[in-house]
Write a structure and sequence with these properties.
Strand content: under 5%
CATH architecture: Orthogonal Bundle
CATH topology: ABC transporter involved in vitamin B12 uptake, BtuC
Number of helices: 11
Strand order of the largest sheet: 1-2
Order of helices and strands: EEHHHHEEHHHHHHH
CATH class: Mainly Alpha
Low-confidence stretches: none
Largest sheet: 2 strands, antiparallel
Mean pLDDT: 88
Length: about 290
Amino acid sequence: MEIFGIPHQAFLGQLLLGLVNGAFYAMLSLGLAVIFGLLGIVNFAHGALYMLGAFAAWILLDQFGLNYWYALVLAPLIVGAIGVVIERLFLKHLYKLDPLYGLLLTFGLALILEGVFRELYGVSGQNYNVPEQLSGATDLGFMVLPNYRAWVVLVSLVVCLGTWYLIERTRLGAYLRAGTENAPLVQTFGVNVPLMVMLTYGAGAGLAGLAGVLAAPIIQVSPLMGSNLIIVVFAVVVIGGMGSILGSVVTGLGLGLIEGMTRVFYPEASSIVVFVIMVLVLMVRPSGLFGKEN
């Protein structure tokens, strides 16, 4: 059986690969969108935080014997705590300045973190095995679905939609949005805005850490894994609309699928298709597909 002249197994395999990549794009761009949309910080350290999540999972297993399921909970908390420290020590001084200062600071932090881990572990990468409960694959009849990749897509969808609902449809989300737009007014209602901002950055960092844990069994855990991905993720955020939670999720998944299909029909363009789409979108709608027009 063929689809568009291509064996259906190969076609569906690339479609699944694109969906998995899109799940990572969605989770990482979601964290970026939360931090930029609520705090106005262009967080270039997000790729390094993603790398820290993967390394936290690997270290928890290698040094402490804690398996994947412990890492799935502990690693995002560890990375989130690191994010809180970064926000308290550095970023809180930049909120009233041009976003360029935040970008430069977080870019420098990313280089430092990557350099430290390159010095400690090299660049060859560390193996992290798929948990036994999620190993193997399921034969669906029309394709064989690797269980772990299906798990990654499921978790990503749940986390992304849950985060969107929390920020856009709950009272807490309303406080977050109001606190970043008019902090003095919100503080008159007894809301601790600095604490809320600190926890928001920590939550965004934790999302990157969770994505790192999910990625660890699929790709080798390496200091370079964040820098290899962050440029594409920034393109996803720009296409979806800077600060748009829903835009990040939908665009991340959609571009992952487009990238996967490009590998089938025109492999040479798969590494640039996201950036071509970004240019086209910015020409027509500079604020992004889901961004608000000024």
